[in-house]
Amino acid sequence: MGLSRLPLTEAQLTEALVGLPGWARAGEGIERTYVLKDFSEAWAFMNRVALAAEKLDHHPNWSNVYSRVTIRLWTHDAGGVTEFDTWLARRIDAFVPAP
Ligand code: H2B
Fold it and tell me: Is 59 in the pocket of ligand 1 (CB under 6 A)?
C-alpha cells in the first residue's frame, strides 16, 4: 500500500483535514459522526467499514447508536494520525450511501 506509519505533522494534518470534510481532530486522532437512515443502514455501513479496515489491518474505534455511527481513527502504535488514518477515512466516506 505504501502508506507511512509516521505521525503527520500539525501542518500535514491541517492540510489533510481540508480534504476530509466532516472529520475533525479528537483526542489522538480524527473523528466523524455519520447519520444514516436507520439502524439497518448503519449496520450495513459498518459492515463495509469493518471489511475495509480488516483488509488494511487498521481498525476504527467506533460506536453506534441506532442510525448514528461515530468513528475515531488513529494509529495506536504511532500515537497519532498517519496516512493509514487519512486513507481509511477517505474509504469510509465513500461507503456512505447516496441519500
Ligand atoms: N488499528 C489502528 N487504528 N491502529 C493501530 O496501530 C493498529 C490497528 N495496529 N490495527 C494493528 C491493528 C496492530 O495491532 C496489528 C498487530 O497489526
Answer: yes
First to last CA, the chain: 31
Helix 39-56 crosses helix 83-94 at what angle (to 10 degrees)?
A: 140
Pocket test of ligand 1: the residue of 28, 61, 77, 83 to mutate, having most ligand atoms within 8 Å of its CB, is: 77
pLDDT tens-digit readout, 12-68: 999 999 999 999 999 999 999 999 999 999 999 999 999 999 999 999 999 999 999
Strand 61-65 relative to strand 29-35, pairing = unpaired
Please name the amino acid found at residue 50. Answer: A
pTM: 0.96
